Structures are given as structure tokens and as C-alpha cells.
Amino acid sequence: MKAIQIAIDGPASSGKSTVAKIIAKNLGYTYLDTGAMYRCATYLALKSELTKEHISMLLAELAAHPISFAKAVDGSQEVFLGDKDVTLAIRQNDVTNNVSWVSALPEIRQELVAQQQRIAASGGIVMDGRDIGTVVLPQAELKIFLIASVEERAMRRYKENQEKGIPTDLETLKEEIAARDFKDSNREVSPLKAADDAIVFDTTGVTIEEVVSFISEKANEILDK
Ligand code: DC
């Protein structure tokens, strides 16, 4: 059976990773959370107290601690840097609040995009991020761009953080999400932007199941062709 590439882009907490995971599972495809990779680079920068002036050292850190993914017993995804489990560490506020400057560094993007394209070369894939449809997989057969209001996205992240035991204030979260949207959309390299051939879907007030079924229908239309 033919395998396709599905690119799911959109701003922070637009529901990308939740739906991407379900769709990948249903199709038996690889799921790749590219945001986790930028978070890993940020974690390394913070751990070694590196700034944007230390790009070659940061690239060396990334080479010394390869990013990999594994499946936990409960089916959730685990993220590793070398042999260190950083699944929870990369979701902490210090990483979240620094990821915009790290992900704006062209050299870091070049390295991580190359890794993402290598992973995609091995078969059917659902990849979520900011530049998947525009830069990483411009040939993807299906491109989805998910959006949602800042209020709704802040509430989703708030609930997620509560479940993970990460202390958060809702108002602060709204401000951080709006600030991250602005930085992600206005950076020079690969800004957050829908590809011309992407389907833009507003998930405000829409359930996860509804988003999944919309994307699955589109995927099936392509697979049945
Ligand atoms: O999806 P997320 O919130 O975990 O992503 C974290 C950050 O990584 C986000 O603020 C922007 C950056 N990112 C990116 O620049 N390009 C991607 N393909 C994915 C994420």
C-alpha cells in the first residue's frame, strides 16, 4: 500500500501533536514531534549556559547527545538526548521560554531539518511543527495548518501542565503563548506560516475527535486515489 507524508503545522497548543499522534497510530505511520527536537536543542543550550554567540558549541552538544524517541509502556512518547530521558525536562517553563531564540538560529534549523528529512525518508510519516509544509516536507501529499484562539490554546496548555504537575498561571500562559506566536511568526528563518497548498482548520471549540476525523478523511481521499 502506498504511504504518504502528512504535515501538520500551527502555533503553540493548536492541538497539532495530539491529533498527529492519533492519525499516525491509526495509519501505522511514524509520528515525529519536531517541536520536541527544538526543545532538546534549547535544553542543551540552557544546561551548558550557551547563548546565540556559541552556535558551534551548541551544534557540538547536539552531535554528542543525539535526539531519539522511544515508546513508554503506556504508549506515550519518550524523548532522549543521548541516553538521558528528557521527556519531562523539555516541557518545563525554562525550556518553553527560551525555545524561540534557539529555534530562530539558522544553523540549528539546518541541522534539525536534515534530521527530520532523514526520518521521513523511511516511509509513511505524520510530522508536526511550524515549517513542515513549507520547508521540511514541501512535497507532503497532505498539509494541514491548525489554528485556535489564544484563550483556548492557553486553557489547553494549562490543563496539560496541570496533568504533568507543572505549576502554571493561566494569564501568564496567555501572554507567553501570544509572545511565542509573535516570535515564531516574525522570525527571519522559516517563520510559522501556512503553505500555499495547506488546508487551514480553526480548532476553536472543535473536539480532538472532530479534527482527527477531518484529517483522516483527507488522508483517505489521497490514499484511495
Ligand atoms: O510545538 P512546540 O510548542 O513544542 O514547539 C516548541 C518551539 O519550537 C516553538 O515555539 C517553535 C519551535 N519550532 C519550530 O521553530 N519549528 C518546528 N518545526 C517546530 C517547533
UniProtKB/TrEMBL annotation:
UniProt keyword terms in alphabetical order: ATP-binding, Cytoplasm, Kinase, Nucleotide-binding, Transferase
Binding site for ATP: 10-18
CDD domains registered for this protein in UniProt: CMPK (cd02020)
Catalysed transformations (reactions): CMP + ATP = CDP + ADP; dCMP + ATP = dCDP + ADP
EC number of the protein: 2.7.4.25
Matches recorded under SUPFAM superfamilies: P-loop containing nucleoside triphosphate hydrolases
MF-aspect GO terms: ATP binding; CMP kinase activity; dCMP kinase activity
Record's subcellular location: Cytoplasm
Keyword Zinc-finger: no
EC top class named in words: transferase
Annotated ranges, domain Cytidylate kinase: 6-220
The family this protein is said to belong to: Belongs to the cytidylate kinase family. Type 1 subfamily.
Protein known as: Cytidylate kinase
Native source organism of the sequence: Streptococcus varani
